[in-house]
């Protein structure tokens, strides 16, 4: 059921449809085109009960604000993790955590998610980095999710 308070642009709905049809999705639209909105529309339009959003610390409140702005008619319990000692609750629908804290949250590795979102997913480009192993490694969080969506405005970087 669609409870979004705003209307998506066609390319945004195309992105939502891509999430629906694929298990793993990369959305690499340019900054400002609404990658976050596509994820929120997917959550809203589908039976998504538990979502883990991993993002840079500076974007956690942005995610919380966007959820509140776009999905006003559906009751969602949002847990924004601010420190490693924060606790998870059974009724959390959306858990928002930074890349720096994702490996410190007790009980996170025993949960299953309808959706795992990796915002600014270029943070995971180094397979040897601790955060990459926590999310994408052999026993990574991605294995606990039905769907994984990676968002980035900079999918390719050139290092010397």
UniProtKB/TrEMBL annotation:
The protein's name: DEAD/DEAH box helicase family protein
Alphabetically ordered keywords of this record: ATP-binding, Helicase, Hydrolase, Nucleotide-binding
Domain of life according to the entry: Bacteria
Keyword Ion transport among UniProt keywords: no
Source species: Candidatus Thiodubiliella endoseptemdiera
Cited InterPro entries: Helicase_ATP-bd, P-loop_NTPase, SNF2-like_sf, SNF2_N
SUPFAM superfamilies for this protein: P-loop containing nucleoside triphosphate hydrolases
GO biological process: DNA repair; replication fork processing
UniProt-recorded Gene Ontology molecular function terms: ATP binding; helicase activity; hydrolase activity
Residues annotated as domain Helicase ATP-binding: 16-160
Name of one Pfam family that matches: SNF2-rel_dom
